Amino acid sequence: MKRALCVAALASALTAGPALAQSGVEIGTLTCSVKDISNMVVYTKERFDCKFQPASGDTEYYTGSITQIGLNLSIKKDFTIVWSVLAPTDIAGAPGPLSGTYVGVGADVSLGAGVGAKVLVGGGDNSFTLQPVSVAGVVGGGASLGVQKFKLE
């Protein structure tokens, strides 16, 4: 049952992200820097300090945490993720619009310096897509792949 649920979540995340991205409006950029990582091989939790720079308006600050269920053989020290934030319409002016829970799939590979991608869909009314722009400063080694939940507050 758990396996079927994970497969369904993975399939949903893979199809929902690209569909929303095709019809979405880029409303800004979300930059998150890791502040803590806990890795138990099949369960990983990463905590972040995040900054949302909307296309228009004031910068907003969030805290985030990514929980991953899947294989994680990584030992990472420090990294920053930059996402392009897409929404079905331009929501300029709404305070704290990104708060909420996102789901998706993530993969990382590193040896010294490395790369990774986390495509996530969710937020208020499941109306946002976080599309990876870059992952910078990954220090460490290993690889990971899994279903992820990102909570942004």
List the helices and strands and how they pair.
Elements: H1 2-23, E1 25-39, E2 43-54, E3 60-72, E4 75-87, E5 100-122, E6 128-152
Antiparallel strand pairs: 1-2, 1-4, 2-3, 3-6, 4-6, 5-6
Describe the overall structure.
The chain is mostly beta strands and 153 residues long. The longest helix is centred in the first third of the chain and has 22 residues, at 2-23. Strands 1-2-3-6-4 form a 5-stranded antiparallel β-barrel. It has one helix at residues 2-23; strands spanning 25-39, 43-54, 60-72, 75-87, 100-122, 128-152. The model is unreliable at 1-22 (pLDDT under 50). The chain contains 1 helix and 6 strands, in the order αββββββ. A hairpin with a 3-residue loop joins strand 1 (25-39) and strand 2. It has one domain (2-152).
State the secondary-structure class: mainly beta
Mean pLDDT: 75
Quote the beta fraction: over 45%
Question: Helix proportion of residues, in percent?
Answer: 10-25%
Question: How does the overall form come out from the CA principal axes?
Answer: elongated
**Widest β-sheet, arrangement of strands:** 1-2-3-6-4
Please tell me how large the radius of gyration is: 15 Å
In this structure, how is the largest beta sheet organized?
A: 5 strands, antiparallel, barrel
Number of contiguous helices: 1
Q: How many individual domains?
A: 1
